[in-house]
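Notes, p. 3: input format for complexes.
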Amino acid sequence: MNDLLIRNANLADGRTGVDILVRQGRIAHIDRQIVATDLPEIDAQGNLLTSPFVDAHFHMDAVLSYGLPRVNQSGTLLEGIALWGELKPSLTQEALISRAMQYCEWAVAKGLLAIRSHVDICDDRLLAVEALVEVKRRVAPYLDLQLVAFPQDGLLRSKNAFNNLKKAIAMGVDVVGGIPHFERTMADGAESIRILCEFAAEKGLRVDMHCDESDDPLSRHIETLAFHSQRLGMQGRVTGSHLTSMHSMDNYYVSKLLPLIREAGVAAIANPLINITLQGRHDTYPKRRGMTRVPEMIAAGIDVAFGHDCVMDPWYSLGSGDMLEVAHMGLHVAQMTGQAAMRQCFDAVTSTPARILGLENYGLAPGCHADFVILDARDPIEALRLRPVRRYVIRRGAVISETPQPVATLSLPGRQCQVNFRH
Ligand code: FE2
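Output follows (423 residues plus fe (ii) ion):
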């Protein structure tokens, strides 16, 4: 465990020029001009110091598999699911572990130190579960990996899914997943939610379901998820991921739905990069954006996080593990361009998902883990604009990644200068 003194940092809550004293890997004190000691020091130079980025929704079993065994030609969600089905039989544990470990290294370099990843449990061999449980163990010193048992082919639609899900939980998977809109009927979707929520309640587990990832305005499984969360007393431990059908729902119905979600303590996760590319595919023009109603849910008191969802896999060919890129897209798609709204977008990739994952000792207060990212930006809004390098990534008081400040040197007629895009 490490001791450290960080000088002259700006914090996301608006405090500027503060020092942070770290003792034994935890925050001991935050103040202006802490008296000099013989500790190692980092000068933050008035840059933004934030708690690490958190990705509340990811698929690490598919990451970096782009092009295997072929590329998604239509770019649709359904071809992505079909393609994943083609890839599954040829997966090996070594390849799964190797791709996931490479992605975790990218994540650390981007200051992303906590990830909730779904893992498909519909393959009876549970190869991906074994592989990601192993990855979780290996990365634990530097990255919190939370796993969700995800029945990609449907809990009721796929023959052994519920048994496999139970096995996955016994193997070390943390959270119960689901995909009600992919079941055969609306009634089966609702039944899958009941079964999964009761199982999670009995075991004391959290729930995070892919829910209503559809443009169908009548896909209303979020209502059922909220109902069971409230009925079973699971407030604060249940999450609906995607919720894209809410984009297309009747406004009057949504005015009833939002307070129900709030009352049930259900959190929401939008995945802007993926929602903007996969939804609205059956539309001509006007073409729906498909992302769920982010500012409206935040205004209703619902926790809303942004997830990355995919990086270079059957559903999405881009991405690099940069949660600022995710928040940047979310901000645009949701038209959250006001100052307060942009700060909410920053929270949606830091403090809000930390709460959804139930991360302990996360945050910038005495006693919290000394986990920080120092960015090459003054405040959260500049960070969103520039998506700059992460100068230092610190875990438990130790620097685990360092990136030099990139500066362009221009040679122009009659003028030599440097450009770093700070204003
Ligand atoms: Fe997903």
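The chain has 14 helices and 18 strands.
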